[in-house]
Amino acid sequence: MELKEGIYQVQDLPLTEVAQEFGTPLYVYDGKKIVAQLQNLKNAFSENQVKVKFAAKALTNISILKLLKKHGAGLEAVSINEAQIALGAGFTKEEILYTPNCVDFSEIVAGVDLGLNINLDNLSVLEKFGKKYGSTYPIGIRLNPHIMAGGNYKISTGHGNSKFGISIYQLPQIMQLVEQYKIVINGLHIHTGSEITETDVFLKMAEILFGIARDFPSLKFIDFGSGFKVAYKEGDHVTNIYDLGLKLGRAFKEFYHSYGKQLELWIEPGKYLVSESGYLLVNANVVKATPSVTFVGVNSGLNHLIRPMMYDAYHEIVNISNPTGSQKIYTVVGNICETDTLGADRKLNEVREGDILAIKNAGAYGYSMASNYNSRFRPAEVLIWNGKAQLIRKRDTMDDLLRNQVVVDLE
Ligand SMILES: *Cc1c(COP(=O)(O)O)cnc(C)c1O
C-alpha cells in the first residue's frame, strides 16, 4: 500500500474503492508483493537453487496457491486436507512436503498413497512406518534441535519442551529403528519457530543438522524450515534474507562437498511470502469516547484476525479514508463479545464513523485462522493482480452458518 497523491493505493487501485466495490470486512492481497517476496528468496539463495515450499497454513486460498505455483514455489502442508487442496491447485506430489504433527497414522498412510514427500516427527510413528513400509518409501524426519528461537515461547517450536520434532538426543533410537526396518531417510528437517532475526541462529541449526546428516547416506534434501521475520512496523528488526542466503548457502555447499553428493536446500516460509501482501479492510462502526479512552469499534474482531489477541502481535492500522486528518490517539477494537483489541493507543488520522481502516500484515494467519464466532460471517477475499481487483472467496452467508447443523425432533 502506497500513499500516492493523498490516496492509499495498491497497484494504482485506491483501496477505499476496493472496499466500496466488495464491501467490508474484506481481506485484500497484493499479488505483486507475494511474487516479489518469492523472487527475493530465490535471489538470496540462487547459488544453491533453493526450493521454496510455501507453508500453506498461512494463507490457504486456492488462487493464491496457484499464483505461487505459477511462479515456481512448492508447498508445505501440515494436514492431509492441505495436501489435497494443494493437489487440487495444481501442485505435483513431488512439489508437496507434508509435515504433520500428532496425527493418526492413517493420515500418514494417506500421504504415502498420494505419493507426497513426508516428514515424520515422532519415534512411535517412525516405528509404525518402518513396520509397514520398510525400505519401500523414503521418508524425512523432523528433528527438534533444542534451540529456543524466535519471537516468543508460544511461536517457538524448537525448544526442549516443544511438542514438535524428534529430539536430537533421541538420535540413537532413530538409528536403531532405521537399521531394524531398513528405513530410507531422504530428508532432514528443522523448523524452530517463527520470527527468527539472526542469521547465526540458522547457522547454528545448520551445523547441528550437518553433524547428524553424515549418519544418513540416502539424503536428498535438508529443510531449514522457516521463521523468517518481516516488518510489522517501521524500524522493526527483520531477517536479512540476503545475508542468510549467502552464509547458509555457503555453509550448505561446503557441507555437501564433504558429504559426497549435491543435496537440495529447502525452506518453507509462510509469513515471509504473504504477510505484508495482505490488508484487512474494516469499517469504523462507532467512535466511542469514554472518560479515559477513545475507542474505534470496527465491523471485525478476533473472529477475523486473532493474532493480536493470541500472540500479542502488533498490526499497524491506517485510516485510509482520511489520510490528511489531524492525528489523535485511539484504541481500535472489534465488535465481538470478548475483549478483542486490534490495536491499543494508536495514533490515527481522525476517525469518523463510516471511515475505512486498513489493518496491515494481514496476509499470513489472518483469514486462515478466522472463525464464525458470535455467528458472524467470515470476510470475503480479493486478490489484486495486474492492476485488477478480483474476488477470490465470497463472504459467508447465513447458509454457511447453518449448513451442518442438524435440527432434531424434541417431541
Ligand atoms: C507454520 C510452519 C511454517 C511457516 O512458518 P512462518 O513463520 O509462517 O514462515 C513452516 N514449516 C512448518 C512445518 C510450519 O508448521
What does this structure look like?
It is a single chain. The strands form three sheets. Strands 4, 14, 15, 16, 17, 18, 19, 20 and 21 form a nine-stranded mixed beta sheet that branches. An eight-stranded parallel beta barrel has the order 5-6-7-8-9-11-12-13, surrounded by five helices. By secondary structure, it is of the alpha/beta class. The chain has helices at residues 15-22, 31-44, 62-70, 80-88, 105-114, 123-133, 171-181, 199-213, 241-259, 271-274, 307-311, 398-402; strands spanning 2-4, 7-10, 13-14, 26-30, 51-55, 74-77, 96-98, 117-120, 139-144, 166-167, 185-189, 221-223, 264-267, 278-289, 294-298, 317-319, 327-333, 341-349, 356-359, 380-385, 388-393. The mean pLDDT is 94. It folds into two domains: 2-28 and 275-402, Lyase, Ornithine Decarboxylase, Chain A, domain 1 (Beta Barrel); 99-269, Alanine racemase (TIM Barrel, Alpha-Beta Barrel). Pyridoxal-5'-phosphate binds at residues 55, 57-58, 76, 78, 99, 191, 194, 225-228, 268-272, 364.
Q: Roughly how many Å is the radius of gyration?
A: 23 Å
Architecture of the largest domain in CATH?
Alpha-Beta Barrel
Largest sheet: 9 strands, mixed
Strand content: 15-25%
Distance between the termini: 57 Å
CATH class of the largest domain: Alpha Beta
Chemical compounds bound to the protein: pyridoxal-5'-phosphate
Task: Report the uncertain regions.
Answer: none
Q: In which range does the helix fraction lie?
A: 25-40%
Shape: globular
How many strands?
21
User: At the third CATH level, what is the topology name of the largest domain?
Assistant: TIM Barrel
**What count of domains describes the coordinates?**
2
What is the mean pLDDT? 94
User: Which secondary-structure class do the elements indicate?
Assistant: alpha/beta
Query: What is the fourth-level CATH superfamily of the largest domain?
Result: Alanine racemase
